[in-house]
UniProtKB/TrEMBL annotation:
It is found in: Nucleus. Residues 1-61 form the MADS-box domain. GO terms for molecular function: DNA-binding transcription factor activity; protein dimerization activity; RNA polymerase II transcription regulatory region sequence-specific DNA binding. SUPFAM superfamilies: SRF-like (SSF55455). It holds the Pfam family K-box. The gene is LOC108852004. This is Floral homeotic protein APETALA 3 isoform X1. Residues 84-138 form a coiled coil. PROSITE patterns: K_BOX (PS51297), MADS_BOX_1 (PS00350), MADS_BOX_2 (PS50066). The keyword Transferase does not apply. It comes from Raphanus sativus.
Length: 224
């Protein structure tokens, strides 16, 4: 049976459209390759799908640029001139912007002022005064932050100093303050214990004798 004639129109179903595009693209590239081999032709095909995905075929031993250059020579059409002119215009605008910026920088440094009239000089003066105001405000804010930080550090140091002075005053009032906790002077500890037992013996003579003896044994044992 003969195949039915396919109506050439846009395929509405996206999946079917993509499948058809892929099959016919491969068939077209196959025909281009056959033309290259059979007829020694130079073929270049550039294709973009509906999703702007690039597909291309180029005959071996050539390039797309060579094909386009050959096309310009044969058809007398300059493909690059319009693009080159746009690039030149963009370059000119960038150079002009760069020159203006350099001039403005020099004017803010006090140079190139002879080119300005009285109105332009007033505008420049006002602009620089506003800039100086912003710089001064930022400077004072930075200084204020540094002062507050220094005050907090000084307050912390003063608190530490007060605590140390208080600690020293407590030690001066009681020479035995903190000796045991600091692992300290066992002779002072022994003397303190002996004085304690003497006072205890004076107040409680009968009971203190036994207690003092036991405490002395324990103390000398620790010192050994």
């Amino acid at each position: 049976m003969a195949r039915g004639k396919i109506q050439i129109k846009r395929i509405e179903n996206q999946t079917n459209r993509q499948v058809t595009y892929s099959k016919r693209r491969n068939g077209l590239f196959k025909k281009a390759h056959e033309l290259t081999v059979l007829c020694d032709a130079r073929v270049s095909i550039i294709m973009f799908s509906s999703s702007n995905k690039l597909h291309e075929f180029i005959s071996p031993n050539t390039s797309t640029k060579e094909i386009i250059d050959l096309y310009q020579t044969v058809s007398d059409v300059d493909v690059w001139s319009a693009h080159y002119e746009r690039m030149q215009e963009t370059k000119r605008k960038l150079l002009e912007t760069n020159r203006n910026l350099r001039t403005q920088i020099k004017q803010r440094l006090g140079e190139c002022l002879d080119e300005l009239d009285i109105q332009e000089l007033r505008s420049l003066e006002e602009e620089m005064e506003n800039t100086f105001k912003l710089v001064r405000e930022r400077k004072f804010k930075s200084l204020g932050n540094q002062i507050e930080t220094t005050k907090k550090k000084n307050k912390s140091q003063q608190d530490i100093q007060k605590n140390l002075i208080h600690e020293l005053e407590l030690r001066a009032e009681d020479p035995h303050y903190g000796l045991v906790d600091n692992g300290g002077d066992y002779d002072s500890v022994l003397g303190y214990q002996l004085r304690f037992h003497q006072n205890h013996h004076h107040n409680y003579p009968n009971h203190a004798l036994h207690s003092a003896s036991a405490s002395d044994i324990i103390t000398f044992h620790l010192l050994e």
